[in-house]
Every structure is written in structure tokens, then in C-alpha cells.
Design a protein that fits this description.
Helix content is about 45%, strand content about 10%. It is globular. The chain has 14 helices and six strands. The protein has two domains: about 1-170 and about 255-290, Nucleotidyltransferase, domain 5 (2-Layer Sandwich); about 180-250, no CATH class. The chain is of the alpha/beta class and about 300 residues long. It has a six-stranded mixed beta sheet.
Length: about 300
């Protein structure tokens, strides 16, 4: 069964940074007997380099919310770093999945994103229902089982918000490690988005193996211009603006519903780059939990 929960009928009077996700959606499933309810979210759709990362989180039924948890985009890096180990410590299970740059270029970012989600869900050890941010995904139920698509889920649904924080922390750490290997691109602070400093670095230093060449090729095709790097001048100047302009649609076109064809074999058959990315992400999550074994002081995050 697939359920789609539309956005709120009235816009909240609170600014996004103050909107607090609730357990409404989880409570509906818990009352129906689903004990292992998954919240899943991804990060890294719009950047022009690096893997796309997804996290899946199962919280204990009727658990108390961790103060400060909300949509990861409204939190500072320090707040996310403090919250991620608390989420891991209180969760029944946390799974991390990724799709590599090679896979993004092969099957496009839309399908790679859902592949990363499925890999994260598969690492949970079983589940009863999935709560996913956004609109209904064609063919997703046949691959993950019953799920509910929630528009603005990372701002409205507590477990999805938890997943968004974990995914963001993991990917930011991965990009910081890549920045040490490829200095000059600013990945430690721009996370691979097409900010001006990143575009200038590409002009000066060229592309790395971690740049998504399909994104550049499609920009070139859409603009009818063979000088691909100059097209970056049309890009927005901040990460927030880039997200607001729905870079997925601009760069990758309209989804064509091929998710069902990207089946279980691909979800389980990891290329070496993807396997390494997932292993690195899980190690980072474990290390972060070890460094924050106590929740003291962190519940005050607002």
C-alpha cells in the first residue's frame, strides 16, 4: 500500500528554522501495529560532485522526541554534529546507503537517489513501513514494501528529520575527507555545490574523478553550448538558492519512471567505489557515536 500525504493546508506561521516535526505519522503506523517504522531521507542531489547519501532510521515506538531535531537544512553544522550521535544512540536501527558518482552518471541522479535510499533501508535488518520525504515514487513499493510519501516530510515528520540529519552529517564528513585529497575546490565548506569558488576551481584545476560528468554534459546539451565550464556562470551563488531552484529537475529532466527497472540486483551489487563510500559512511557514524556516548548538554540544541 502506498499513501501520499500532501503538504499542510495552511502554511505554518513559524519560519522554517522553528518548525518542529511531530510523531503524527509514526503514531498512525504504531497504532496499526507496525513496530519498525522507517524514516528515510537523502542528501547530495544537487551538488556537482560526490556520492548521493541516504539514511534510514527506526525509532522505538512511542519514543520521546530528541529536542532540537528538525529539518537538517535549518540546522547549523554544529547542531547537526551534536544531534547525529544522539539519534544513533536512541534509534532501534540506523542504516546508511549511497550511490557513487559512477552510478549517478550511469542511471541519472533521480534513480541513483532512490537506489541509495533502498540500500539504506536494506541495512536496517527488517521493517514494517517506510516514511519517505517527497512525492510518490513509481515502483518503490515493490522494492521496499508499504510506504507513505510525505510532502515536506523532513520538516513535518520526526523520523524523516532524524534521517535527514544523519545523512547530512555523513555526507559532509565524506566531502571533507575528499577535500583533503583534492584541495582547492572548497568541498570542506561548499560540499560540492556549484558555488562560485567551486566553479572557479574547476576552471583553474580541471575536473576530478568525483565530479558528475553527466551533470556537465546535460548542462551543455540544455544550453546548446560546447563550452561547458562557462555555463556555471548561470548558476546560483548560494547552496540555499540552488536547492530552492530544484536543481534535480533542471539538471536531470523529468523522471521517467524507470525505478522498477533499477532492481534488487543493482541494489545489492555494489561497485567498489560505492562499497567503499558506504563503509566509510558507516565508520564515520560509528566514530561519531563513540565520541558522543553521553547525551549531556546536547538536548539544549534549539
Amino acid at each position: 500500500m502506498v499513501e501520499r500525504i500532501p503538504g499542510p493546508r495552511r502554511k505554518s506561521s513559524r519560519p522554517p528554522s522553528q518548525r518542529v516535526p511531530t510523531l503524527r505519522f509514526e503514531n498512525d503506523q504504531w497504532r496499526d501495529g507496525a513496530g519498525r517504522v522507517v524514516g528515510v531521507d537523502e542528501v547530495g542531489v544537487a551538488p556537482t560532485c560526490g556520492a548521493v547519501v541516504a539514511a534510514a532510521v527506526i525509532m522505538k515506538p512511542h519514543a520521546r522526541r530528541i529536542p532540537g531535531v528538525r529539518d537538517s537544512k535549518t540546522l547549523s553544522a554544529l547542531q547537526r554534529e551534536r544531534l547525529a550521535p544522539l539519534i544513533r544512540g536512541r534509534a532501534l536501527a540506523v542504516g546508511v546507503g549511497a550511490a557513487s558518482v559512477r552510478e549517478i552518471d550511469a542511471i541519472n541522479i533521480y534513480h541513483a537517489t532512490h537506489l541509495a535510499m533502498r540500500r539504506a533501508i536494506a541495512r536496517l535488518g527488517g521493517h514494517d513501513h517506510v516514511l519517505v520525504d517527497g512525492n510518490r515514487i513509481r515502483g518503490f513499493e515493490s522494492l521496499v514494501g508499504p510506504y507513505t510519501a510525505i510532502v515536506d516530510g523532513d520538516a513535518r515528520c520526526y523520523t524523516i528529520a532524524c534521517a535527514s540529519i544523519v545523512a547530512k552529517v555523513v555526507r559532509d564528513r565524506m566531502m571533507a575527507k575528499l577535500a583533503a585529497r583534492y584541495p582547492g575546490y572548497g568541498w570542506e565548506h561548499n560540499q560540492g555545490y556549484a558555488t562560485r569558488d567551486h566553479r572557479d576551481a574547476i576552471r583553474a584545476l580541471g575536473l576530478t574523478p568525483f565530479h558528475r560528468r553527466s551533470f556537465l554534459a546535460l548542462q551543455r546539451t540544455l544550453a546548446g553550448d560546447q563550452i561547458s565550464l562557462d555555463l556555471f556562470d548561470e548558476a546560483v551563488e548560494t547552496i540555499e538558492q540552488q536547492d530552492a531552484l530544484h536543481e534535480l529537475d533542471r539538471l536531470d529532466g523529468v523522471p521517467d519512471g524507470r525505478d522498477a527497472a533499477v532492481g534488487d540486483d543493482l541494489a545489492l551489487d555494489l561497485d567498489p567505489a560505492t562499497a567503499a563510500a558506504i563503509a566509510e559512511a558507516e565508520a564515520m557514524l560509528r566514530d561519531g557515536a563513540g565520541q558522543h556516548s553521553s547525551a549531556a548538554g546536547a538536548d539544549s540544541i534549539g
